[in-house]
Amino acid sequence: MNEQRMEFYSREREVSGWETWHDWHEMVMRPVADWLVRASGAAAGQKILDVACGTGIPGLLLAEAVGATGKVVGIDISPKMLTGMRNKAAARGLRNIETREVDALTFGGPDAVFDAVTCKDGFMFFPDIVAGVRELRRVVKPGGRYAFSAWAEPQANPAFATLFGPLAEALKLPPPAPDTPGPFRLAAPGALERVVRDAGFTDVTVERVAITWTFASVAQHWEIFSVMAGPLERAIATLPESELAQLKQKLAESIAPFATADGGLRFPGVEWCVSGTR
């Protein structure tokens, strides 16, 4: 696979804006975060593993649900993300969160130690998704819960297409191979369910959860994605000024259909969500 293409479509875990824009991101993703808390069965006193935890969505809500007698272990491969989660937890007075810089595929430790495991939008970036989910199943207690989410089909998530289409054109990148890590790797109907079943889960419920991406203005859209979307951040840093101006114009044209009467932007979004009992 072309390394530049791989980098473009892979999840960017080290960009600076995730902690800065955490509250906005949490607002957008709240329907999915609430679903993860509910579907995981989070309750007082439980110990829950949150994988690819980022800056704490849904980990902070899980910590509130399990209370002072429970614990949330958030794991991520990015130390910056984990720092962000700790900062957000401290700001909310949450002392029941533990963070670990570790890959889910090499989590290790004893079997059957968690009451539940959650993962919001992380599996699409695993090198070996089934192996990763199998490892997560291993550490959940028999009778424990799991709840995972992944982005649904591109046409249901235009916030991505309106951004990455112009970016790929500006950077002259070919389309990604079907199994390239990226937002839509598990978007096809049944793909996430197949991964979960191949990893050994037999109790599987599939749902679709809708969200709405809301921006106060076109300027805010640019500001947020320029620091949260790694490919755009790199384009800003590397493209000549004339090509960057062309990119901004094409982005403006692509998002125009989603403008609101008050000068903002609204994009629909949908996620596949799977859950069940181990």
Attribute tags:
278 residues; alpha/beta; 7-stranded mixed beta sheet; disordered N terminus
Describe, in plain words, how this protein is organized in 3D.
The relative contact order is 0.17. The chain has helices at residues 3-9, 17-20, 22-28, 30-39, 59-66, 79-91, 129-139, 158-170, 191-198, 218-228, 230-238, 241-255, and strands at residues 47-51, 71-76, 97-101, 114-120, 140-151, 205-215, 265-277. Strand 2, helix 6 and strand 3 (97-101) form a beta-alpha-beta unit. Helix 8 (158-170) packs antiparallel against helix 12 (241-255) and helix 10 packs across helix 11. 42% of the residues lie in helices and 21% in strands.
Largest sheet: 7 strands, mixed
How far the N terminus sits from the C terminus, by CA atoms, comes to 36 Å
Please indicate the percent range of residues in DSSP E strands (runs of 2 or more): 15-25%
Strand tally, please?
7
Order of SSEs: HHHHEHEHEEHEHHEHHHE
Order of strands across the main sheet: 3-2-1-4-5-7-6
What global shape is seen? globular
Radius of gyration: 19 Å
Concise structural overview:
With 278 residues, the protein is of the alpha/beta class.
Topology:
Blueprint: H1 3-9, H2 17-20, H3 22-28, H4 30-39, E1 47-51, H5 59-66, E2 71-76, H6 79-91, E3 97-101, E4 114-120, H7 129-139, E5 140-151, H8 158-170, H9 191-198, E6 205-215, H10 218-228, H11 230-238, H12 241-255, E7 265-277
Helix pairs in contact: 8-12, 10-11
